[in-house]
Amino acid sequence: MERFTDLLRGSNNKDKGSDMDVEMGEADPNQSPFMQEFFDKISQVKRNMDQIRKNMGHMEKQHGMALTSVSSSASNKRQEELEGLMDQTSTLITAVKVALKDMDKDSKAHAAKAGKAGDGEARIRQNMHSALTKKFISLVQEYQEMQTNFKGKYKERVGRQLKVVRPDATDDDVERLLQDGGDSNIFKQQLLQERSTQAAKNALADIQDKHRDIIRLEQSIVELHQLFVDMAVLVETQGEMLDQIEYSVQQVTPAEVL
């Protein structure tokens, strides 16, 4: 894991150079077909990552409106839009993860087949792939932090709504209520005592809506955690591959270069 953290820092000169290549994202017409295909895949991954970031911006706005919405119908609409954005983002994240793994696999296979003659291309590919993988991990980490942040805000909203009908409600009461999804006996008993007042009904409906949002966010956070585990393994192997390529390049004699 320390190796993973070190690789993510991207502070060495090789990473800076590869970052520039990734930003360019264009293939040299003089490159081999294998490299041109690589650049095409880089461009597609970048487009998917750009869309993920755009979706994050839309989700942040929708979450903000959902937290301030007082209308049940408006809240349901926001929830549907959020679910659509989260589904699309999840699909894009999976596509990027698969693409990065496939590119890594192809690069290793090509390097093994080409031998020392392919060290130059192999180093370029590995550096660029490593830089792009780090950018992806950073983006997903930002997404996970956003999800965690809004999960906390939804829980705070549930706590406020619970206190509408039970002012002395504790944090433990809120946790039990969230576990039951709004069907808690505490809340039902309070509704009966209040003779099903409109305020209590509205609070219950809002709690149930926000509970669904929290569950969805929790699922997303768990999925993103698993992604970090997968990417940690990939970054670790990238570092080992780069070390091997550097060693191979250093072993080339002047005669071999000529």
From TrEMBL:
GO biological process: exocytosis; intracellular protein transport; vesicle docking; vesicle fusion
Domain T-SNARE coiled-coil homology: residue ranges: 204-253
Membrane-protein topology: Single-pass type IV membrane protein
Record keywords, A-Z: Coiled coil, Membrane, Transmembrane, Transmembrane helix
Listed InterPro entries: SNARE, Syntaxin, Syntaxin/epimorphin_CS, Syntaxin_N, T_SNARE_dom
Localization, UniProt: Membrane
A GO term from the CC aspect: plasma membrane
Coiled coil regions, renumbered to chain: 35-62
Biased composition (Basic and acidic residues): 1-19
Molecular function per GO: SNAP receptor activity; SNARE binding
A Pfam family hit: Syntaxin
Gene3D superfamilies: 1.20.58.70
Region (Disordered), start-end ranges: 1-32
Statement: the UniProt record of this protein carries the keyword ATP-binding: no
PANTHER family membership: PROTEIN SSO1-RELATED, SYNTAXIN
Homology family: Belongs to the syntaxin family.
Name of the featured protein: t-SNARE coiled-coil homology domain-containing protein
Organism: Guillardia theta
